[in-house]
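As a warm-up, study this chain.
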Amino acid sequence: MLRILYTILRNIFHLYLIPLMRYVGKHPERYPEEKRYRLVRRLSRLVTKAGHIHTAYYGIENIPEEGNYILCANHQGKFDALAIVNGHDRPCSLVMDYERSKLYVVNEIMTLLQGKRLKRNDVRQAMQIIMEMAEELKQGKKFIIFPEGGYLHEKENHLYPFKPGCFKSVQKAHSTIVPVVLIDSYKAYKYNSLRRVYNSVYFLPPIQYSEIDGMKTQDIAQLVQARIANKIAEVTDLSQDEVCIDLDPGIQLI
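Now compare it with the structure written out below.
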């Protein structure tokens, strides 16, 4: 919380961006996707700099130069989406929990990105979003998704099981998957401190649709999770057996 308050104070003279984002978001017909995305990245970089957050990027050359794809990442905290956006220069959208997507500033970002607001436990709405994503992917759009479905700060660099339903739109649109590994991203807002924090983002080699054609969503989820888990084990002090942990059914993710 301290870092968030400090970031707001440091950017007091940039607060005009919020009403600007709100206005631009309400008029997508006047502002192309590229311009809206640049506005989001501008805010994201201001937040990152003011918050003393330092991110190292690896594997940017693995990001496809054309075609549709889904950036599929592990989830650690509030900074995750911004960390990916900062390192991804082509416009993309985002899938987020409905309630959290309505938070101040987050709402403006979601509107600019024309993100998908997913209501938990609403199966009909989830299917509608899957269909919308599939159609937009076919048109060349790109999405960031977090297949764990949420996070807890305590899990740090561990992984919870990936939800197979996240990959239904991939099947319908025959999309490429780009696994994204976030390391120490949770540190940005976990601690009540203003000390510099360092995190890393790894864009792994893409999984072409030809590799997963005919596979069930459960198998796709396990494949993507395994590749992310292997990278986490490679760059941290966790063993492969320690990376993936089970989630208590009674625990609600953030």
